[in-house]
Amino acid sequence: MIILLNLDWSNLFELKTKIKKDIAIFLENNLSIFSSSKQTLDKTKRQNLINKFEKKSINGELPLSALVPEYKKKYMHVDGKTVGRLNIEKIKKVANEDGFYMIETNITNIDSKEANEIYKGQWKVEEGFRTLKSAIEVRPMYVYKDEHIQSHVFLCFLSLIVLKYCIYKLKKFYKDNGEIQKKSQWICL
């Protein structure tokens, strides 16, 4: 990853085409990152949406009732209130932004690599909250006093930690002992 400080945004897109590596740019509390793998992913997603549009369209036009919101927002020009067609200028503009994403942080003494690693681990935190809400059923809470609410949330969080630890240990046990492979071979026979 290449780290650039105080770069002029107007030169950013030119720089992206010249350098095929990941770029990180710090601007105050914002971290702008270019990732070549995200660029490929963005390009593929956009092309898939364009292909879907072309399959559904008649003479390059599609009725608004058939438009998916993804089309309307990024790639479409809507004529009146009846039909939409691809907007080539919007597509080119979005293509220039492929591979870029921004991280905003309130931590001032953090380097770009560390901020990016924290961001990449965000899905683990979000998965934990989903587990709290669904499997552990944090909600609804039928408690009203502050100390009861805090105790309830603490117990739910503690159960999340125990659950995740058990899953971790089971995965490690099965990986180390090859139990999954043995059972899957037995089932296939």
UniProtKB/TrEMBL annotation:
GO biological process assignments: DNA transposition
What does the UniProt keyword field contain? Membrane, Transmembrane, Transmembrane helix
Give the originating organism.
Mycoplasmopsis glycophila
The regions listed as transmembrane in this protein's record are 149-167
GO MF term list: DNA binding; transposase activity
Protein name per Swiss-Prot or TrEMBL: Transposase
Which PANTHER family does UniProt cross-reference here?
PTHR34614, TRANSPOSASE IS4-LIKE DOMAIN-CONTAINING PROTEIN
Is Transmembrane tagged as a keyword? yes
* Statement: the UniProt record of this protein carries the keyword ATP-binding: no
User: Domain Transposase IS4-like, which positions?
Assistant: 73-160
